[in-house]
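debug: dumping io for the single-chain case to check the tokenizer round-trip. Nothing else runs in this session.
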Amino acid sequence: MSENDHYISELHIDANSLPVTSPEMEHERRVAIFDLLEENLFCPKDSACGPYIVNMSLHEGRLVLEIQRTNGMPRGTVSFSLKPFARIIKDYFMICEAYHDAIRTATTAQIEAIDMGRRGLHNEGSRLFEDSLRNAAEVDFNTSRRLFTLICALHRRP
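debug: decoded output
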């Protein structure tokens, strides 16, 4: 078994789970998926090898990840509540808005301070995501960061 087999090769987001978005937000989502597919570690528990196709959706306040191998063999479904993420996502959007506003008028030091706060919230959400998956799949920190970005994209409104 090669450790390199344990990665997501395709990620699809259920169209019904996506909010109405602007072209910029759609671009952000595509970039997040591209970055995830470029480099990730994803190893469902009790799975000898990958790679994997993941279908992501929202259903009644839960994130649902349907996982299968690229040969079509199912590897299970992971589902967890997004309630624990609500505060982090709300704060993350607020600080992102402050960051974009600051770029126009703030000093470099102020922008850097806001960006440090943004990265801290992103890291907190990533750790929570990794923890939410702990009984179902192993992911590395960068993969959890990219997946947290996609969770935020599912909640973002224009």
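debug: round-trip ok. The chain has a mean pLDDT of 88.
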